[in-house]
## 1
Amino acid sequence: MQNRILYTKPSITDLETSFAADAAANGWGDKCYDYIYRFEKQFREHIGTRFAIATSSCTGALHLGLAALGVSAGDEVILADTNWIATVAPVVHLGAKPIFVDIDAHSWCIAPALIERAITPNTKAIIATHLYGNLADMDALLAIGAAHGIPVIEDSAEAIGSVWTNERRAGSMGRFGTYSFHGTKTVTCGEGGMFVTNDEALYETVLTLSNHGRARGQKKQFWPDMVGFKYKMSNIQAAIGCAQMERIDTLTARKHEIFERYKELLGTLQGLSFNPEPPGTRNGAWMPTVVMDQALGIRREHMVDAFAQANIDARVFFHPLSSLPMFQPVLTNRNAYEIPERAINLPSYHDMTDDQIGRVADVIKHLVNPQ
């Protein structure tokens, strides 16, 4: 049997291991935050925002931002039904009610037209998740937010490398943005996240909340000004992040190359849809994805089985959040319920060989044309 193809893994070089070793050996005492501050600076300069705060996860960054906006019991937060649980968990933890709306059939991101119908006097925020590197329609979302006085938040956990029109990077356009550095992501620290914003007051509140409620300007030692959280990144994790940021152009370019190669190999097949890349934008291609046309009759289970037989990891499209047992079903969200039944994520780690990409493509080809 051929070697197994993983759906994703990080790109780690001697640079990452040397930075991590330096942090482990020397990053203590008055140097215990050096790599963290350096990582935050590198990241905000790359994304193009004024402020950045390294966190323990993207989920933590989202929790901090929502808390700083005052989201609490009785509030409503609008988000796409197609999401990983991490996007809605902070909403629930803060006591607010998630309002699930359907996704756009082409972008697989939140459908702007449906947001207008979901807004109520209790709406506190709109979360736009850039799914798999695909970009939500930020121009439409920001216009809706401005018209109603509702902040738009960008969950960019999967969108490092994605660029909206006019060279605006994913996560830089909303009231705040969040990112993930999980081991599966394009840029990794093993685990971790980042909060970014251009709002100085919001930045200061999140900074305080992220450090047990201790304000930066507080002169009293061990004196919290509010009940906060412990969502800090370690210096060793940040050291790995610093090395990754020195390679970020290479890392993001390679993900896009793999995406383009899949389109070359599979683009002539009838009835397949790929991650969209509208004119003037760039898809970060964190997770190249194939959606089968209904007429083909190829379901998720068929694809999972075919990949297993070829010794290739299969990663399914996210289930709708409202289908999970802790929420009430929203069956009117037809795209969120129907698309996952005929979609699959394709392996796309940085050092995949062309032969491995070809093996994956061959599975899809055989499913579509089994002769």
## 2
Amino acid sequence: MNRKKTRKIMVGSVPVGGDSPISVQTMTNTDTSDIEKTVEQIHELENCGCDIIRVAIPDQKSARALFEIKNRVSIPIIADIHFDYKLAVTAIEYGKADGIRINPGNIGRPDKIEIIVNKAKKYGIPIRIGINSGSLEKDLLKKYGQPNAEALVESAIKHIKMFELLNFKNIKVSLKSSDVITTIKAYKMLSEKVDYPLHLGITEAGTKYSGIIKSAIGIGTLLYEGIGDTIRVSLTDHPKEEIKAGVEILRALGLKKKGVEIISCPTCGRCKIDLIGIANEIQKKTSTIDQSLKVAVMGCIVNGPGEAREADIGAAGGNGVGVIFKKGKIIKKVKEDKIIEELMKEINQLLLNN
């Protein structure tokens, strides 16, 4: 795939755009003013692979809490601002946020946006222009009759021009809809018009199961076409599930090499072991490994090793027994209750040798 070259901006220490790796981000669901819980959750999310974290700033107490939170975590923090421009000012000046996300349409008058832009300019931090189908301007809804792709793009272009007139180009842009096709179409249209980095996502995608599917289709399609510089999978679930899903989307497209990729077959009548349980346990045990590794968990000794020969290492089950194999070649036979233990031994040894 040929990735579109966009402007490169810096969100704290993380580059976004240009030839930078595509970053994965999420948003905390703690009360931001509760510093301990927020810091604890950010550390958990960072361990899952989060590159950039966003926190809600609903009040001045939360904006001021940013300063201590930022000093206790190592990944960049973006302050999520709605309605009150003063919250953005505090988050920038006092909280030392690494970036700001605003929806210009709900901030109010242009002079309020100018105040935010000037503060961001002074402190050298980027702003994400976050366009959302649920909060489009009334005149655009009247013009188009619905929050379609054309309306999203027109809103984005209007606000981009507003920022450019203020001599501010340290921006990234998102165009989010809960409708997958609308989102894809909007991002493709905007990508042809501007070279600012794009933040991809399907807003209000739903619960874990349906939300991951919608996000994988929407985000995955755009990334495959070379569009997008940072992503967030939005789920009605714990934010760590968003990070896990985002990382897997990148890995499936070959855009992220670090970590363990699990290859496992669907169950069928030939399977005589607890394949589902074994595969899930291996995935859990390897989830914190940073090194690039393909691990196969197959249900059939006869076909498994051959079908998964592209894996670095794997296991296949038989009738109460299993085999451990490397690159499709069997290296040992074990009892079913020892498959997980023996496979993990071989994985750890392989990592040490590498």
## 3
Amino acid sequence: MTKRVLIAPLDWGLGHATRCIPLIRELQRRGCEVFIAGSGDSRLLLEREFPQLTFLELPGYQPSYPATRSMAWSMARQLSKFRRAIREEHACVERYVKEHALDLVISDNRYGCWTASAPSIFITHQSNILMPKRFGWMAPWIRRINHSFIRKFTECWIPDFPGDHALAGDLITFGRHQANYAVRYIGPQSRFIPTHTAKTMYDMVCVFSGPEPQRTVFENIVVPQVKASGLRYFVVRGLPAAAEEQSNDNCVNFLSGAALQTVLEQASCVIARSGFSTVMDLSALQKRAIFVPTPGQTEQEYLAARLMKQGVAFMQEQHRFNLAVALEESKKYKGFTQSPADPALLAGTLDSVFESLGKPQRQKELVDGK
């Protein structure tokens, strides 16, 4: 009997949608009927990648980043909007489960996308949400809230390796909360399958992404320096709602996954945000990178600093970005060399979930994904 599965990625940038692509492909390979629920640019990206699938609407979180003010205070002011989105998306999922007789719900960081009527999976790389140093006193409270939401789901899937091989480091630690719900490690999830055949065509490829206005701020700082450098470059603006058109100066609004992979594989170096999905993609392609974290976004700042400390990639703060310095410094870093995740990790996790469908739901602790 065909299983009907709902995938619901968060609309906070594009990364939650792109890392769902290998999951959607695996579900299709198994003959599942896949429904995608989402909003905004992340939904539009998946509509372009999978035009044959059924798409359902969810309320958008629509985060807005400050241009100059504190990120923490900006997020605090939007909490009521986020709580409303969680309540509304939960009501939508309950309705969709009934209307479409769904067998399984998989949420990528949407806290409200669960139901008691079917197994519900929560995908996250932030079981431990890091706080800015001056708000460190809030960390235990934030962690309790985070885990209270995750406990509503049947299982929590971490798109990373456990232990020392993890890309996300402290972001995926659990501490004493680990025993409260089932956890599986499915390995880093990238939409890219490296070819290792591309010839280098560009000295640098710049990929811009994330909520406004910081996406535009980043682009306006980097692109003038790139154009004045005299080097071979390609710019992907990260605007899926815009036309996929290339201008005369090697700049494109958006690229499909296959086209983006081609461009990235032709790059000597990639300049990008240090969001976790970007890290997974560049790790899969084993690229050299220069990371510029979104100002005030603690997760990206932590990942960029961690990768720099490990000798993987150079990082620069956005307001200090200097292309000449960044390119010279990046030569001291080895780039990503870790082998991609074994697809069997995700396949085995799905095997276990599908075996349990039709059986009474129960939660058990899983150690290191085993």
